[in-house]
Amino acid sequence: MSVLLSLQDVSADLGRTRVLQGVSLNVGGGEIISILGPNGAGKTSLMRAALGLIGATGETRLGGADPRTLTARERALRAAYLPQRPQSIWPIKVEVLVALGRFAHGAVPDRLAPADQAAVDAAIKACSLSEFRHRGMDELSGGEKARAHLARTLAQHAPLLLLDEPTAGLDPAQSLGVAEILEAHAAAGGAAVFSTHDIALAASVADRVVLMKAGAIIAEGAPEEALTASVLEAAYGRAARLERVGDTFAAVFDR
Ligand SMILES: Nc1ncnc2c1ncn2[C@@H]1O[C@H](COP(=O)(O)OP(=O)(O)OP(=O)(O)O)[C@@H](O)[C@H]1O
């Protein structure tokens, strides 16, 4: 199994806040890993450190290289990043936004080579956006916009997906669609790391969950083994448990 991302004892500060504390994580091809944890736990910071977007101590390797030494293009060929709440500043068409995902392959959005066009079409289809592809980004609902940004990320065809809350704002059926996209990516040998507050979805989809609190990983492993009641309570400060429901899960928080 190829190692696509490796963090060893990574710590980082933003301003006066220690946002990562001794984080170690290895991600190999074929894996789906979900990052969980309360607001402010460090999930976004972990992804940004993985990409070299924030300074950190320890050792970070993205596709075997220190991400701080990579050009934007080299980084984009290794990892596709979906930021939390991405913005599209211009009212560009959906298919043009998705084509921007091809920049690392040398694509120009209005003159796509066949391979770039095929990648754009496949990403639009996977994200159920075919009927919206000619619409402006300013003519979409919140969930449709989120899917367009995900499609841009997928069109990049990077082996590692780093997705910060890819299902935020999506309806349950669309969230399951994202889960199936991640499963297909992993089945093809890629890896997906995604953060979410949907514990049940994470447990259903991820091979491994990583639970963070205050910048540190407090539990990691197969969902049912890692997400014990005591660990969930330690993370969220409320009594909670993961329950199996058929072949999926529910996260139950006591009131
Ligand atoms: N630019 C910044 N300067 C100082 N502190 C920051 C900065 N950005 C984030 N933080 C702090 O870093 C910590 C981790 O933030 P991060 O965005 O990584 O959390 P998160 O787990 O992704 O949270 P959420 O679930 O709310 O998205 C938080 O305490 C946050 O307040």
TrEMBL record:
Pfam families: ABC_tran
Top-level division of the source organism's lineage: Bacteria
GO MF annotation terms: ATP binding; ATP hydrolysis activity
Entry annotated with the keyword Protein transport: no
Highest classification ranks of the organism: Bacteria, Pseudomonadati, Pseudomonadota, Alphaproteobacteria, Hyphomonadales
Protein name: ABC transporter domain-containing protein
Record function comment: Part of the ABC transporter complex HmuTUV involved in hemin import. Responsible for energy coupling to the transport system.
InterPro entries to which the protein is assigned, alphabetical: AAA+_ATPase, ABC_transporter-like_ATP-bd, P-loop_NTPase
Record flagged with keyword Transport: yes
Keywords: ATP-binding, Nucleotide-binding, Translocase, Transport
Species the sequence originates in: Candidatus Viadribacter manganicus
Chain ranges of the ABC transporter domain: 5-239
PROSITE patterns: ABC_TRANSPORTER_2
